[in-house]
Write a structure and sequence with these properties.
Layout: E1 2-8, E2 12-19, E3 23-30, E4 33-42, E5 54-59, E6 62-67, E7 70-76, E8 84-90
Antiparallel strand pairs: 1-2, 1-8, 2-3, 3-4, 5-6, 6-7
């Protein structure tokens, strides 16, 4: 079970994801294809099995990624220089179940 943050550009989506093994990754989706931007990387910022706070700061194609207020990565993607933001929740396998609560989602313009 993982938690993700997404940013949609005109042409695709940028996905920032964490999992319960303490790892995060970043992918770009366009034309029915996923491309790895940042491969799965372990991070001590992730609290396994607990609530985690993801933060995405984007200006143009420059994107800063934080987990629980700790900087974890910077990526650049000219395809995501503008767009919208959203949340994506999913499970890894069929017949899994999960509960998600979003109680302080914020979307701000810096």
């Amino acid at each position: 079970m993982g938690t993700t943050a997404t940013c949609q550009s005109i042409d695709g989506w940028l996905l920032f994801e964490i999992d319960n093994q303490g790892r995060f990754a970043v992918y770009y989706y366009d034309s029915n294809e996923w491309t790895t931007v940042w491969d799965w990387t372990e991070s001590p910022a992730i609290i396994q099995g607990e609530t985690n706070r993801l933060e995405v700061l984007a200006q143009g194609g420059n994107i800063l990624l934080y987990i629980n207020d700790q900087f974890v990565a910077e990526v650049f993607n000219s395809e995501t220089s503008s767009g919208t933001a959203g949340l994506l929740v999913g499970l890894d396998e069929e017949n899994q179940s999960g509960i998600w609560e979003f109680y302080n989602f914020e979307l701000r313009i810096p």
